[in-house]
Design goal:
The chain is an all-alpha fold. It has a domain of 28 residues. It has two helices and no strands. The protein is rod-shaped, with a radius of gyration of 27 Å. The mean pLDDT is 82.
């Protein structure tokens, strides 16, 4: 039973840290936009600098240039 004297304050401190972290995340805007991040993965990446995007062949049979 003596261990409860140690474990209860430790658990209350950890609970306080978790509540503080949640409040900090809400105030800093971490939960403002929950809809667009899952859609960002579907967007195409821009071509690397110095390269132009590949042109589509009209008949689809043309190989690389």
């Amino acid at each position: 039973m003596r261990i409860l004297i140690v474990l209860i304050p430790i658990s209350l401190i950890l609970l306080g840290v978790a509540v503080w972290a949640f409040v900090w995340a809400v105030r800093s805007g971490q939960f403002d936009d929950l809809d667009t991040p899952p859609l960002d993965i579907l967007a195409d990446d821009p071509p690397p600098r110095g390269q132009r995007p590949p042109e589509e062949a009209e008949d689809g049979a043309e190989g690389p240039r």
